[in-house]
Amino acid sequence: MTAPAPLLFQPLKLNSLTLPNRAVVSPMCMYSAVGGLANEFHLVHLGQFALAGAGLVFTEACSVSPEGRISPEDLGLWSDQHLLPLGRVTDFVHAQGGRIGVQLAHAGRKASTYAPWRGRGTVLPEQGGWTVIGPDDQPFSDTFPTPTAMTETDIHRVTADFVAATKRAVMGGFDAVEVHAAHGYLLHQFLSPLANSRTDQYGGSFENRTRFLLEVVRGVRAAWPMHLPLFVRISATDWAEGGWDAEQSTVLADLLDKEGVDVLDISSGGLTTAQQIPVGPAYQTPMAAQIKQAVPDLAVMTVGLIDTPELAERILQAGEADLIALGRPFLRDPHWVQTAASALGSAPQLPNQYARSGR
Hints:
Blueprint: E1 12-14, E2 17-19, E3 23-25, H1 40-51, E4 56-63, E5 75-76, H2 83-95, E6 100-105, E7 133-134, E8 148-149, H3 152-171, E9 176-181, H4 186-191, H5 206-209, H6 211-223, E10 230-235, H7 246-258, E11 263-267, H8 285-294, E12 299-303, H9 309-317, E13 323-326, H10 328-332, H11 336-344
Parallel strand pairs: 3-4, 3-13, 4-5, 4-6, 6-9, 7-8, 9-10, 10-11, 11-12, 12-13
Antiparallel strand pairs: 1-2
Helix pairs in contact: 1-2, 3-6, 7-8
């Protein structure tokens, strides 16, 4: 009898989508688009992970509204013009037997900022920037733009933008969609008392602060095919006193499960410059484990300083998560899956052209 494959290399079925392994390319901003349009860079960048056997490849955050981009160079899905170049990417990934998801996002008060290697802080209108929006008029920091507080009409408009982008994701051939509600971006801003001082039905109580996200998720779930998985990424804690925390995240997880979310992607931080993050190997995984235990019907993805195959496998074997998302490890080694398979004594599912690499 042969030993079972490591959990990292066992398939995972999410609705009708079966992932060949549990290694996921995490959404990572590349700051390389013009007008939100994907180009040859994105085709090669994302396509390489499919060639190398990643179980699921996520695009970077695709803004659902022009003003929702983090930087002027972010990808977008607010227009039908974005479909053809993104469709080239999904077609290529599928031709290699891969699976690809899209992360839908709105940066809120953290929008209209420079790509990291171009500068810091606000991109002014004369330099291609724009007026940003948020739950209230608090800026992220004194170098970031001051947002205009959203009206309820603005909230409904952005919700509709998420739904419209989801419909485009269906037409674009994506296998999964993720709603970005983490890292201090718009939906996270509404969740946290540190960024949301509203006194209407979208601020104050836990029920009110979660209302916007739940309305977005409800709309996205209705527009996204039920047989395909819906992910939501949250920051489980702000790592700051008086902010969003793991206990609130656990309650939210149960609500998202009831709304038809299939996978909760657990990250943390990004909401405030006052955050104090105890960074270390797999430092966010305990929060993923807490949520997985509390809401067992909801699949959980963990991310954050999971650099080695052995650590990824230990997390899965301990039942702390169902999927492992990796960012920098894939940037350092696009063939991380093959490296991990060798380390764990397994063999990844690869395109025919690359199959001999495992022999």
